[in-house]
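Q: Okay, next protein. This is Membrane-fusion protein from Clostridium pasteurianum BC1. I've checked the sequence twice, so it should be correct. Can you predict the 3D structure?
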Amino acid sequence: MKKKVIIAIIAAVVIVGIVGLRLSARNKTNFTAVKTASVTKGNINAYLSTTATIKSKNSKSYFSPQQSKVKSVNVKVGDKVKKGDVLVTYQVQDTSAAVKQAQINLSNAQSQKQDLLNTVASNNQKLTDTNNQINDITNQINALKEQQSKDPNFQKTGSATQLQQLNSTLSQLNSTKSSIPDLTEKLKQADNQITLAQTNLDTANTNAAQSTDRNVADFDGVVTAVNAVVGSSQVVSASAAGASGGSAGAAVTIEDQSNLEAEVNLDKYSATEVKVGQTANLSFANKDYTGKVSYVAPTAETTTSTTGQTTTLTADIDINAPQDGLVEGFDADVNILTGQVNDIIKVPAESIKTDKSGKNYVFVISNNKAVQKEVQLGLQSDTEAQINSGVNAGDKIILNPSASIQNGTAVKDSTSTGGK
């Protein structure tokens, strides 16, 4: 009997335990462990990180004069030169014939105009004399006509014959006056011929002046390319001459390596971010430098290589002194400050998600549940984003929310417990 009672008690305990476990399991919520951060107020600096090529701000390529042969090359790549140093000399062909012909053409044009002026002067004098004669004859005719009106015997005298002769002379004088040409238009044409001849002479003189017999350094610098070859009437390219670097076709190139800048090539995504005046930080060979964007090209350029075509926009950065340690031609790491906002609400970049419609959102923890909040973004850096609306400072948000986190998911903050 006692044995049956004990068995019954044990069975009852087991049943109660099973029921209790089921009720406990039914009431227990499964929480997803998440890492969080607080929405804060502060500042954001946005940078464009890229590379730039160090180059000289002052560079010049010198070319050979027309119709010349290289007589001597006085420098080689790597030479330091001073302003005024003779780099290359040339045997220049004679250009005096072209100048002489232009001078002759101008002289002929001037002579032709002078001939016209002499003719105009002669015609003017002839016109004056003719007008004087016409006036004199007209006066005589008027006098005879007055006499004719008063003298009944006028026709019987010699005065009638004289009147006829005067009228005939007046007609001849008027015909002579009409035949004197107006040379105004021809004078204009002569002036145009002189202007053209003078322009041609100026051009010939300019060409002669440009056909200098030497290239002279305009500033202190270093020779970075030499393509001129003694005896050649045509400067060859750097590759054909076996030289290194330089501008193809230039006889000599020199650069001022004491005044350097950084050149950045921007793709279509970053080009709109960079503006003149933005500050920049540069790093080269474990040394840091500062600078400012001084130039952004108005149009992009396309370059072709074996791998295809690349289209970029060039921007230059003035590098502040000191520039010690920079080496022209090498790349430097550059961070350009493209945006800056202060005292704004911000969140870590890894807290932001984007749905299929392009809307941005974060998950805020409220009562141990993930609550999806749409946010309007402002300035963004690599690590942070400005929030214009959607959350408030102090809100706790989920970092790197996985796909399992949905609106209403029960979550547990594991940030302070290391995920346990």
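A: Here is a summary of the prediction. The helical segments are 2-27, 96-150, 159-179, 184-210, 238-241. The chain has a mean pLDDT of 86.
Q: Noted. On to the next one.
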